[in-house]
Amino acid sequence: MKNPLECWLNEDQQTQKTTGLNVCPLKCSETVSQWGWARADINSGRLPRRALSAAAARFGSRLRQNTRADMSWDGYIQNLIKSEWLDDAVIVGHTPGQESVWASAPGGWLSGVTAGEVKAIVASDRSGLFANGVTLAGKKCTVLRDGLHMDGQNTMDIKMKTSDKDPDPFPFTIGKTHKALIIAKGVKDAHGGKVNPPVFDMTLYLRKMNL
Fold first, then answer.
1. Which class for 1: exposed (0-12), middle (13-18), buried (19 or more C-beta within 10 A)?
2. Measured distance CA(104)–CA(72) in Å, rounded
């Protein structure tokens, strides 16, 4: 069976036409949620490097169809939260001295992400990340996968720790562009494979735009 991401590369137009990027057009059993986790294979050589350019082009095409070419950062937020799997998102600067919220979803709590939390997320020392986790707007999260500083991935998948006040372990994906972090929250019962692809694609597109 072909790798489903490779199938997507070969049948991109048919995928968009018939499935909206939800199911491999060559009838692989995997869905986008499953092949989203396999993107690390690009760096290992098991998938072609052109997969990165193809993903960015795909997102750029969607962006041009759905938003103004000169849209503000709010437009990127709207592009994210229109997904049925995402209900909150924030874009925050991560360069030193610029760790502030650039745009956030109306009514969402991710707008409360602090400069200290951003610094901890992008820190070069990753040794204690899995043991200590990270926080988002004061809510503790467990790190599930960390590829934030890995070329070709640049994303991190985390899950909110449950408590009496917050009983649902919501999933999040964080994408790192050259200048900003894109943080998106999944809806209840969504898994990381549904939350990651929109953030991955947007992150890649903005990195190609040198943003």
1. exposed
2. 12
Stated length of the chain: 211
pLDDT digits (tens, 9 = 90+) for 104-118: 999 999 999 999 999
Contacts of 37 (CB under 8 A, 6+ apart): 145, 192, 193, 196
Q: Inter-axis angle of helices 192-208 and 50-66, to 10 degrees? A: 90
AA identity, residue 89: A
In this prediction, residue 50 carries a pLDDT of: 52
Token readout for 138 is 């004061």
pTM of the model: 0.69
Torsion of the alpha carbons at 39, 31, 34 and 195, rounded to the nearest 10:
90
Handedness of CA 68, 74, 119, 123 (dihedral sign): negative
List pLDDT tens digits, range 113-169: 999 999 999 999 999 999 999 999 999 999 999 999 999 999 999 999 988 888 889
pLDDT computed for residue 39 by the predictor? 43
Q: What is the mean pLDDT of the chain?
A: 77
DSSP E strands, the chain: 86-93, 101-104, 134-136, 139-146, 155-160, 171-176, 180-186
DSSP codes joined into one string, 112-132:
G--HHHHHHHH-S--TTHHHH
Q: At what angle do helices 50-66 and 12-19 cross, to 10 degrees?
A: 40
Rounded distance between C-alpha atoms, residue 101 and residue 31, angstroms: 33
